[in-house]
Write a structure and sequence with these properties.
With about 325 residues, the protein is of the alpha+beta class. It has a domain at about 5-35 and about 90-165 and about 190-295: Cobalamin-dependent Methionine Synthase, domain 1 (Roll), CATH 3.10.196.10. The chain contains eleven helices and eight strands. It has helices at about 5-10, 35-40, 45-50, 70-90, 170-180, 180-210, 220-225, 245-255, 255-260, 295-305, 310-315; strands at about 30, 95-105, 110-115, 120-125, 155-165, 265, 270, 275-280. The strands form two sheets. Strands 1, 2, 3, 4, 5 and 8 form a six-stranded antiparallel beta sheet that branches. It has a two-stranded antiparallel ribbon with strand order 6-7. A hairpin with a 3-residue loop joins strand 2 (about 95-105) and strand 3 (about 110-115). Helix 10 packs across helix 11. The model has no long low-confidence stretch (mean pLDDT about 100).
Length: about 325
């Protein structure tokens, strides 16, 4: 692994890219209750639906597969029937909470989110983890790199979102379970997951085109959306670019989610209902998804200091990305 000094020297320098951040059309939080499931359904990516049934393959090519094709088609047809019932019968409700905030990177790896555009008061600080593998020709990335540093004096912004399409699912699941109907129970969960992901895609598109508006002329097909042909990323805490699930607590704080969102966090920072997605919006044209890879003890100690946690706590939450065996004490 490279040292923290080396990886900071080899960071991606957003301030050198000539990019001028776009101010979102509104700052603060907006809530969208009971969003149209019919509209959301047009954004569904069906490929992962088949994975829920342990069928690998891409939609619609999977229908032509000699072994899996017939089964895949049956599942898909059943899903269309249930999807219509979900929409017509209002089995599920969808809700989104999105917000846009003045923000700059600070001390290389963290992000200051300010209370307003004067930027005199920090509302909260988000904490990043930086790639520590030795890299020759490419930068050691951290999500904070995609924001202009505070020292640059350039006004930059970050977005945040919590979306769900799983509200009300328990009632229907209880009916299926009372009938010992595993098939429809799995089907409903699989479709709710697809709708949550579709809603995430839809809200990200609305963010790019209108809420943030940095790509107001974007016209992409569903296929292009699935292939992420757009500008910007929406990384989620607990995923490879920000493996620390505890950052979700800050996301919840930022979006006043306890008052606004119907999605709650469990003690292990899982979302409830499960058909939910949350994360941050970054608009930088060079922003890409990446994995932090393994990190060393020096970064863990630095991260613990920045977060106000003990080293042991950080090691527990970041266990999957540690490049060393932590002490047991």
């Amino acid at each position: 692994l490279a040292s923290m000094e080396q990886v900071h020297a080899n960071r991606f320098r957003s301030e050198d890219s000539g990019y001028v951040p776009v101010k979102p059309s509104f700052l603060g939080i907006r809530q969208f209750d009971d969003y149209s499931l019919e509209e959301i359904s047009h954004y569904i990516d069906w490929s992962p639906f088949f994975h829920a049934w342990e069928l690998s393959g891409r939609y619609p090519a999977i229908f032509e597969h000699p072994e899996k094709g017939v089964h895949a088609r049956e599942l898909y047809d059943d899903a269309q029937v249930m999807l219509k019932k979900i929409i017509d019968g209002k089995w599920l409700q969808a809700q989104a909470v999105v917000g846009f905030f003045p923000a700059n990177s600070i001390d290389h790896d963290d992000i200051n989110v300010y209370t307003d555009d004067q930027r005199n008061t920090v509302q909260l600080k988000l904490h990043g983890i930086r790639q520590q593998m030795v890299k020759r020709d490419t930068p050691n990335l951290c999500l904070s790199d995609y924001l202009q540093p505070e020292s640059s004096g350039i006004a930059d912004y970050i977005g945040a979102f919590i979306v769900t399409a799983g509200l009300g699912i328990e009632e229907k699941l209880a009916e299926f379970e009372a009938d010992h109907d595993d098939y429809n129970s799995i089907m409903l969960k699989a479709i709710a997951d697809r709708l949550a992901e579709a809603f995430t895609e839809l809200m990200h598109q609305r963010t790019r085109r209108e809420f943030w508006g940095y790509a107001s002329n974007e016209k992409l097909t569903n296929e292009e959306l699935i292939k992420e042909k757009y500008q910007g990323i929406r990384p989620a805490p607990g995923y490879p670019a920000c493996p620390d699930h505890t950052e979700k607590a800050l996301l919840w704080q930022l979006l006043e989610a306890d008052q606004r969102s119907k999605v709650s966090l469990t003690e292990s920072y899982a979302m409830y209902p499960a058909a939910a997605v949350s994360g941050f919006y970054f608009a930088h044209p060079d922003a890409r998804y990446f994995g932090t890879g393994r990190i060393g003890q020096d970064q863990v100690e630095d991260y613990a200091r920045r977060k106000g946690m003990t080293k042991a706590e950080v090691e527990r939450w970041l266990a999957p990305v540690l490049a060393y065996e932590p002490d047991d004490n």
